[in-house]
Specification:
Layout: E1 2-6, E2 15-19, E3 23-28, E4 31-37, E5 54-59, H1 63-66, E6 68-75, E7 85-92, E8 104-107
Antiparallel strand pairs: 1-2, 2-3, 3-4, 5-6, 6-7, 7-8
């Protein structure tokens, strides 16, 4: 289920679609392809309606220069927490094609 659509404002015309389970896909003139997969970091979703998951995506104002973007998602219960919560995390994009995996640059 798509929850966010964002443009990095870098002049490429690309659009990024955030999906509730934890994936982000990029859409451009060549079609669409995976951009980020954080499904292993996102809380397991309930069947049917659920207000948790990957909730938002935003690009740094200077994304074209620094490749930074941010996601907001529901994280599962951790031993140091008494309840599940939401997490903000920053990542850095790489030139195409991006490497597999994630490269966090900020979290908290």
């Amino acid at each position: 289920m798509p929850v966010a659509l964002a443009s990095p404002g870098d002049g490429t015309g690309r659009l990024f679609v955030a999906d509730l389970p934890g994936t982000v896909r990029v859409i451009d003139g060549d079609g669409h392809r995976p951009f980020l997969d954080i499904t292993d970091l996102v809380v397991d979703l309930r069947s049917g309606y659920d207000e948790r998951g990957l909730l938002g995506l935003a690009f740094h104002p200077r994304f074209a220069e620094n490749g930074r973007f941010f996601v907001y998602y529901s994280a599962p219960l951790r031993p140091v927490r008494r309840r599940a919560g939401t997490t903000r995390a920053g990542y850095r994009s790489f030139p195409s094609p991006p490497p597999t995996g994630r490269t966090p640059v900020r979290s908290g």
